[in-house]
Amino acid sequence: MLDWSTCPSVERNSAKVSGAWVFRGTRVPLSALFQNLEGGATVDQFLGWFPGVKREQVEAVLEHAARSAQGA
Q1: Tell me: the pLDDT tens digits for 21-53?
Q2: Which domains does the chain have, with CATH numbers?
């Protein structure tokens, strides 16, 4: 399980999306990114579908996940 608390591009609030980790300032859960990427979508497609999410946020989330996986 990744520790998202150290990634500044995300937040968790029990009043938003049932407490799921979301992109900061949005209601878009991180799981939406990973599900879409696993389904074959590109980052550009994801950003088009979720215009509130910034490219920098997606890049930070992917970098955080990659660093966490290397440390596991």
Answers
A1: 999 999 999 999 999 999 999 999 999 999 999
A2: 4-71 (1.10.10.10)
Closest to 64 in 3D by CA, of 19, 4, 1: 4
Interval 46-59: pLDDT, tens: 999 999 999 999 99
Backbone angles phi, psi at 17, to 5 degrees: 45, 45
User: How many angstroms separate the CA atoms of 20 and 31, rounded?
Assistant: 9
